[in-house]
Automatic annotation (TrEMBL):
Keywords: Kinase, Membrane, Phosphoprotein, Transferase, Transmembrane, Transmembrane helix, Two-component regulatory system
Domain of life: Bacteria
Gene name tied to this protein: phoQ
Organism of origin: Polaromonas eurypsychrophila
Record-level Gene Ontology MF annotations: ATP binding; protein histidine kinase activity
Protein name: histidine kinase
TM segment ranges: 169-188
Length: 443
């Protein structure tokens, strides 16, 4: 089922948003820092002009301020140049203005504490200015005069310089963002290539061109591909098991059906024959169904505590064989857990313990432990033991025809153990009877 936004689009959108936010923040910070730096440079130049005025200023005999006609800064002598100077004589109440301020009403400062500097931006009807003011008490001979010197510069030049830098900054940031997005797009394409290869291999598996995912993948994906291969293999094994079970079922039912057909000629023995053959067919069907659904899900099954399962089976069999007063000994760590289907475990242990209790004289032993990462199960009894360890694993073969049963239990256990890629061994027990060893690998 398709739906939702692809991983590539999600990552690209996320990267684009983060990149946009970062570059915008960085651009605004650099823009502000540049504006402050340029403004500080302008204020520095205006302060230098203040010192130029102080060097040129003189007082006449009446205490009036006398300034030269020309200055080292030529813009002060050029009307409308954008650089203006004014000196206010607080004592006399008059003001001197540079020739550049001719015919203009400019916001020259009139009052300021002696020795104080004032840097500011002024927005007046006549325009916007950068302003630096300085107050000084001027002394010449026996005379002194409190003066307030102000230098103004039109912000037009400042705005042009800052604007040019800002345009260049955002142009480069825009170009950088495009390049970074292209690089991010390439990196995403390169980084997601393994996922595309997995999807391509899965399509080829669906089309029958290959049987499993065979490529080498990064560690982050190898676990996924391994699990997919396991699922594919389990599905194939399950299909094979179902096909074999149906084939075996069809073949196995031929004999009981032939017996029933021949029994029709002997009506006197028909009921007993029908009952016997129906029971046998039921056993065959149950066995093949068990083979068809056995195993395959252990890898994904939750860990199962084994001790409670063993104890439940032991308690149930103790009631079934109460007349034999069997001594059941169980050795299983209470915290031992294993990934296995609970039904499979019940089937294996139930059949083996039932066989052991059926044949035992007085003792049945169960041991479950972990060894080198494998699960080991040992079930033994003090009965007569096995006479033929190979034949008892075949369907409908019993160790002793005098003991009730259908010869299905050990065959079912053998199939279950095989479905879990395990090992099953039938040996002589130290108790004197039969011993069944099961070893299951890590799912």
């Amino acid at each position: 089922m398709k739906g939702g936004i692809s991983i590539r689009v999600r990552l690209l959108l996320g990267a684009a948003l983060v990149l946009l936010a970062f570059l915008t923040g960085a651009g605004l910070a650099v823009q502000r820092a540049n504006a402050e730096s340029v403004q500080a440079a302008y204020f520095g130049r205006l302060q230098s002009t203040i010192y130029l005025l102080l060097a040129a200023a003189e007082l006449d005999a009446s205490g009036a301020l006398v300034m030269p006609q020309a200055f080292a800064e030529p813009r002060l002598s050029l009307p409308g140049s954008g650089l203006y100077a004014g000196i206010y004589n607080v004592l006399r109440g008059d003001r001197w203005q540079s020739a550049s301020a001719l015919g203009q009403q400019l916001p020259f400062r009139r009052s300021l504490q002696a020795g104080q500097w004032r840097n500011e931006t002024l927005d007046e009807a006549g325009g916007s200015f950068l302003s630096v003011s300085y107050a000084v008490t001027w002394k010449a001979s026996a005379r002194e005069a409190p003066l307030v010197l102000t230098v103004l510069e039109d912000r037009a030049a400042f705005n042009r310089e800052v604007g040019a830098f800002t345009r260049t900054l955002w142009l480069w940031l825009g170009a950088a963002s495009v390049l970074l997005l292209l690089a991010q797009l390439w990196l995403l394409r390169w980084g997601l290539a393994p996922l595309r290869r997995v999807a391509s291999e899965i399509r080829r598996i669906e089309e029958g061109e290959q049987s499993r995912i065979e490529g080498r993948y990064p560690a982050e994906i190898s676990g996924l591909t391994d699990n997919l291969n396991t699922l594919i293999q389990q599905e194939r094994v399950r299909q094979t098991r179902h096909r074999d079970a149906l084939s075996f079922l069809a073949h196995s039912l031929k004999t009981p059906l032939a017996v029933l057909r021949s029994a029709l000629a002997e009506p006197a023995h028909l009921p007993a024959t029908v009952a016997q053959q129906v029971s046998r067919m039921d056993d065959i069907v149950q066995h093949q169904l068990g083979r068809a659904i056995a195993g395959g899900a252990a890898r994904f099954a939750p860990p199962l505590l084994l001790a409670p399962v063993v104890e439940r089976i032991r308690d149930a069999l103790a009631k079934v064989y109460a007349e034999k007063a069997l001594d059941f000994s169980v050795e299983c760590p209470p915290d031992l857990a294993w990934r296995i289907d609970e039904g499979d475990l019940f089937e294996m242990l139930g059949n083996l313990l039932d066989n052991a209790a059926k044949w035992a004289r007085s003792r049945v032993g169960v041991r479950v432990w972990r060894d080198a990462g494998r699960l080991c199960i040992c079930i033994e009894d003090d009965g007569p033991g096995f006479t033929d360890t190979e034949s008892v694993l075949r369907l409908h073969v019993r160790g002793d025809e005098r003991v009730p049963g259908h010869g299905v239990g050990l065959a079912v256990v053998s199939d279950l153990v095989a479905s879990h890629q395990g090992e099953l061994k039938l040996v002589r027990s130290l108790m004197g009877g039969a011993r069944v060893d099961i070893v299951l690998p890590v799912p």
